[in-house]
């Protein structure tokens, strides 16, 4: 049992997902997002045009860059499409999930 707990602790220590400082500063260009997700840039631009994902750039910028939250959405869209969802159904599911997460965190914020 001790080895199992040690292994779990080791995984937690190595997880970049618990590095909140890193994640809060993470901004990645569309090319890099395409490489790490396996989704073509053209498809990412289409999803942005449809309003499914948003860039982290200032108004008027022509460079598409995405933050951590948008990369999570991109990966979730990809996963849902692979599971057989249509793009519209995936978008609705993600919107509902994001609203639920946001609501939960607002409640937590009020408690602190």
TrEMBL record:
Keywords: DNA-binding, Repressor, Transcription, Transcription regulation. The keyword Lipid metabolism does not apply. Gene3D superfamilies: 1.10.1660.10. Residues 30-96 form the HTH merR-type domain. It comes from the Bacteria. Coiled coil: none annotated. PROSITE patterns: HTH_MERR_2 (PS50937). GO terms for molecular function: DNA binding; DNA-binding transcription factor activity. It holds the Pfam family MerR_1. This is MerR-like DNA binding protein. It comes from Aquicella lusitana.
